[in-house]
Amino acid sequence: MSTPQPENGVIVVDNMSKAFRLHRSGTRTVKSAVVDLVKRRGAGKNTFWALKDVSFSVGRGETLGIVGANGAGKSTLLSLLAGTKTPTKGAIRTRGTISSLLELGAGFHPDLTGRENVYLAGAIMGLSRRQMRDRFDAIVDFAGMGDFIDQPVKHYSSGMYVRLGFAVSVEVDPDILLIDEVLAVGDDNFQKKCLAKIEAFRNLGKTMLIISHDLGTIQSISDRILFLDEGKVAGIGDPHETIGGYRALSRARQTRGHEREWGTGEARIDDVVFEDAEGRVTDTFASGGAVRCRLRYHARKRIENPVFGFSLCGADTRLIFGSNTQVEGFTIDAIDGKGELVLTLGNVPVAAGNYLFSFSLHSADHRENYHRLDHAFSITVLSDARFEGVCRIPCSWEM
Amino acid sequence: MNFWPHELVKRRELIWILIQRNLKIRYKSSVLGVFWSLLGPLFLILIYSVFLGLIRVPIHLPTLVSGIIVWQFLAMCLGDSLQSILGNANLVTKASFPRVILPLSMVGANVVNFVLSFVVLIAYLVWEGGAVGALGWLPAVFVSQIALCLGLTLVIGSVNVFFRDTEHVLSVVMLAWFFMSPVIYEPDMVMDSFPEWVHWLFFMNPMSGVLTGYRMALLGSEPVAPELMGVSLAVCWLLLGVGLLVFRASEPRFGDEL
Description:
heterodimer, A: alpha/beta, Rossmann fold, Coagulation Factor XIII, Chain A, domain 1, six-stranded mixed beta sheet, 24% helix, disordered N terminus, B: mainly alpha
């Protein structure tokens, strides 16, 4: 994919910065405004630069994925493009109609029916009543609403809400579609429908900007990736490379202070990639779900009976569980050159939080440490369950 | 938004849909719905006539009722205006459209309401069989009052985004304004007992002109000097200008504050 020239980009962001004024307390009162006026001297003191000197352009028909840690400025960037926020410095030029899926169905009014909300959403995006009437059936159909369309949306399930929001945003037929984390909502079936719709959009030559923490998906659907870090463009370009850069940086950040790498170096663990049960590359897992670690090693000489080990620690480096190939009775005769090894943890029942993985490669008698990566890899575990302690032990009560 | 009028013509469907939405939400889950816009003034007239008749207050009922109905239009607009931006935070932070449409449609919904009340008022006045006066004032005061309501809605709606004190300030101001305006009395009371410079001051209040205009047209009230009326109605339009300026200046920051 060639880099589009700024002059033919449908979105051109030119040296754009966005500052927010921070208020000490939530809402401003006249008193605090007066205090601010009096204390004006340190003007830049309470400002927070959410985006700083951001420049890039997106060509017609291109799909740009946006990655970055929480607070990197991704969502702020999309609201600036959608026109709901105004840049503090610099300029944004967009060509064509923009539809945003910033928060699905967020503009819906709970007391109005689905039908009324659909027409309102259409009018907000600048479509006439007649244009909306032509699309109405397609929207109801895509969202799978049926008779519910004439019920007030406050009676909708959250799934229906999201489905209707998505249906409206795509059926209004925008030139540019902004998508913020919608790939993370809805059931599997609906996600597949969304992805299919996104693919159809791509084939129609529409321009899309997508934010997602699901790195596997975003890598596969984007033409280019924009990597934002603390409000600055840390990289833009080839999906594989840019996401690699993002991974490396976030890994370095998250494990900062705890990681240690040592060993003789005769054989090394080059990289570890984490996957969920479905084989998708991710750093985020559901509590109780499977975690697969794909270890890529490189032995510079032939090593007989090597042992691979691992341990899982809490963010405070307290050990939760550790084991190795020897303990588990998985004998490796020898390694030589490059290869891959997969470790599957069938069920990780830990509480929500960040966890650190360590990996080691050593000799069977533990005398030789070829390579050890202590606390080098971080994963995040999400959980809905509430319990005390580090892990959930299945329990039941009887009387 | 450099060309508001041009943008607004393009977005007339959105304005209309939002007016309908505002009306629907006001009467949500009420059986009689929009009929309350007719029933409200009807009961107002009934109750005032019964009780004022009982306690024998020497007050001209048509003057009082017309004053209250015209005042209610302003009071309801300004009451709603607090939420004209805040109450639509989900739209403001999620979609791009001329923000001025929000206060505009809120005033629009209240105009619809007022017109319905007005129909009841006219019916009552016809039934009373009063005299008709200079009807020419009617369109002039009608559009001027809308300009006034819109101007103040623009100011209050945007100021309330930044300072939540607005609500409390407004309720105090409205109470004082109510008695400064000839709602429950006729301007004669001021004209007869104060020197001329007070008359000018009195008619600097835009509602003085609006209320007097309606009564001159509908009740055949004693005419007031056209210069005084001119000042009053000019202030209405001046406040619309101020409202537009304030709104334009604060509009870019709505997205950050909400």
